[in-house]
Amino acid sequence: MVPKIASIGLFGLNAFPVKVEISVSQGVPDIVIGGLADRSVQESVMRIKAAMQNSGMRIGQMKCEINLSPSGVKKSGSGFDLAILTAVLAAAGYVPADLDGKAFIGEVSLAGDICGIPGALAMAIEAAQNGITELYLPAENAAEASVVKDLRVFGVSSAAELTAHLCGRKLLLPVKPEPIGADSFRSELDFADVKGQENVKGAIEVAAAGFHNLLMIGPPGTGKSMIAKRIPSVLPKMSFEESIETTKIYSVAGMLSGESPLVTRRPFRSVSHTASGVGLIGGGSIPRPGEISLAHNGVLFLDELPEFDRKVLETLRQPLENGEITISRAAGAITYPCNIMLVAAMNPCPCGNFGSAIKRCTCTMQQVSKYLGKISQPILDRIDIQTEVASVSYEDLTGNGKSESSAAMAERIAAAREVQRERYKGTEIRSNSGITPDLLHEICVLDEKAEAYMKLAFEKAGLSARAYDRVLKVARTCADLDGSEIIQKKHIARAVGYRSLDRKYWKNALPM
Ligand SMILES: Nc1ncnc2c1ncn2[C@@H]1O[C@H](COP(=O)(O)OP(=O)(O)OP(=O)(O)O)[C@@H](O)[C@H]1O
Ligand SMILES: [Mg+2]
Ligand SMILES: [Zn+2]
């Protein structure tokens, strides 16, 4: 009987089933691997030979021919090691050959240890979908895979341990899925520390409630960075599906922390302006997810926006619109999701005081223009909520007036998100920012006064068609925060107000 051992391959986030077939003949002991296996897979031979020897097992007089099927699909990486090793062990009689329903993934070291691999969660999900009931993988990836339903997950630390288990000499216990605790961690940073800036906190509330992109613009030292860092404290909880999606990306990037098998808090990725295009968008010869995908279902924070390379910023246009990014390489195209809330902060000019009512700007018009011009109109168009962060008054800063806490804001945001969850049940839409064009007018119903105001704003303020759609979505969120199913004039006015900055600051910098 030719043992066939199930394994799982991975390309980007896409896992696919692979069968390891082995055919043995008498001859010079060797292992040969076929089936579009690249060099990284071929090197498995050297590791497996050494691992067997160091675990006290012999290949004997076996010439092993191994085929990884389907043979039309390229395979790379060291993740097939464990399945190939198991196939050789089965052929040599060290373990039973009947391994139906079991799949094996993991890298084997020369010493015979089983080492961790990236992407275990995506592979475990694929295994379960292919009728696998027992998954054997490196012990360090076991917790992550154990969240998959209807799959018994065994963490294996050495070839000897696996052999003992499969022969029934010393059984391993399946890993218990860790209870996914309620979001116990709360950020210590709290909006209660931010004095004044009520309008900015209001803008953040709308942005977080509807998952809209946000830009804060203002002079130095007004609290923009301070405010941005507190956004995680008010974001709504992640659903289980969102959590799985984000975890898959961290798993592929090899960035899961050992403590928790799942990413259960919305990511907040603060990216430095020295970041490269690849760092931000993703890439490499086997394309890795970039910061924009690591922020999936959470926040990507770009502080000092004009300091970023303009070309790098422009690469954000497509992914911001589509919620996913496709990276093409010779090996094929990989798509990573990036449904993010972009938060950006900036000064309005090199000295920082342009537009300030208190301090004088010392820059020339040309300098201001050049500075603002680094942010292109298409990028600005995608930022639904633009808010000015003015200097805090002395009274606000020193007074005992209580600033609202993150908890109070988070409660209203969560309530508005709940309304959206109910409304979008059974659709692909997750939040108001994701309303699809076909449903826009069904979901955003305006009363008469709101309708009239919108017409006026559109004509007077010269909103673009894209801006018009986006204003409606933000107004939808304002109404949801207000507990109103119908969008009223005040909601439209607020949403239009959030788009006024590009006219105030950019009308001189760029042709509108
Ligand atoms: N509204 C505020 N309430 C309380 N403290 C504040 C406020 N604004 C600023 N501060 C204090 O000033 C410090 C600097 O603020 P922050 O770095 O957030 O300013 P910024 O707007 O990001 O400035 P820059 O444009 O130079 O980056 C904060 O760490 C905080 O101590
Ligand atoms: Mg700052
Ligand atoms: Zn200036």
Descriptive keywords:
Rossmann fold; binds adenosine-5'-triphosphate; binds magnesium ion; 4-stranded mixed β-sheet; 22 helices; 18 strands; alpha/beta; 17% strand; 512 residues; elongated; 5-stranded parallel β-sheet; binds zinc ion; Ribosomal Protein S5, domain 2
| CATH second-level architecture of the largest domain | 3-Layer(aba) Sandwich
The name of the CATH topology of the largest domain is Rossmann fold
* Strands in their spatial order, largest beta sheet: 11-14-17-10-18
Q: How big is the Rg?
A: 28 Å
User: What is the assigned CATH homologous superfamily of the largest domain?
Assistant: P-loop containing nucleotide triphosphate hydrolases
Written description of the protein model:
The protein has 512 residues and is of the alpha/beta class. It is built from 22 helices and 18 strands. It has helices at 39-42, 44-54, 81-91, 120-129, 142-145, 159-166, 198-210, 224-229, 240-252, 277-281, 291-294, 310-314, 317-322, 365-373, 377-381, 394-398, 406-423, 440-443, 448-461, 465-481, 489-497, 501-506, and strands spanning 4-11, 14-26, 30-34, 62-69, 102-104, 107-108, 114-115, 134-138, 152-156, 214-217, 268-271, 282-283, 288-289, 299-302, 324-329, 332-337, 341-346, 385-388. The strands form six sheets. A five-stranded parallel sheet has the order 11-14-17-10-18. Strands 1-2-4-3 form a four-stranded mixed sheet. Strand 1 (4-11) and strand 2 (14-26) form a beta hairpin. Helix 19 runs parallel beside helix 21. The longest helix has 18 residues, at 406-423. The radius of gyration is 28 Å and the shape is elongated.
